[in-house]
Amino acid sequence: MNDSDAYLWIRKNLINVNNGTEQDEAINIALKALASRVPLPPIQQVGKIRYGMGYAYHDWYCPTCGCFLAYEPEGYSKQGESNCKKCQQRISWDAI
């Protein structure tokens, strides 16, 4: 079982226990921590392109907190940080 599978199993089987107990609080904290370990693709603001040095730049942001991750000149490969510096969300650049 990998991080994604564990996250989905917990959400499916334990999230509906919501009785306001310490167990529920622990499950929610664990889900939040585990969710940041599941790699997500970065997001790009649609229609927002910066120009400079003869290139059009696309900015990439964290899908969880919206923090700036990287920029990419058009025509070059997309590469950036593997984790968000602000919320530690894992980033999957392969998905874009």
Given as residue ranges, the uncertain stretches (5+ residues, pLDDT < 50) are none
State mean pLDDT (0 to 100 scale).
79
Mass-distribution shape:
elongated
SS class: alpha+beta
Q: Report the β-strand fraction as a percent range.
A: 15-25%
Reported for the largest beta sheet, the result is: 3 strands, antiparallel
- What integer value in Å does the Rg equal? 17 Å
How many domains comprise the coordinates? Answer: 2
Q: Strand tally, please?
A: 3
- What is the first-to-last residue Cα distance? 25 Å
Individual helix count: 2
Query: Strand-and-helix sequence, N→C?
Result: HHEEE
The level of helicity is 25-40%
Biggest β-sheet: strands ordered side by side in the sheet: 1-2-3
Description of the molecule:
- There is one protein chain.
- A hairpin with a 6-residue loop joins strand 2 and strand 3 (68-73).
- Helices cover 27% and strands 24% of the residues.
- It has two domains: 3-35, no CATH class; 43-95, no CATH class.
- 8% of the residues are buried.
- It has helices spanning 3-14, 22-35; strands at 43-52, 55-61, 68-73.
- It has a three-stranded antiparallel sheet with strand order 1-2-3, with no helix packed on it.
- The chain has 96 residues and is an alpha+beta fold.
- Helix 1 (3-14) runs antiparallel to helix 2.
- The model has no long low-confidence stretch (mean pLDDT 79).
- It is elongated, with a radius of gyration of 17 Å.
- The longest helix has 14 residues, at 22-35.
- The two termini are 25 Å apart.
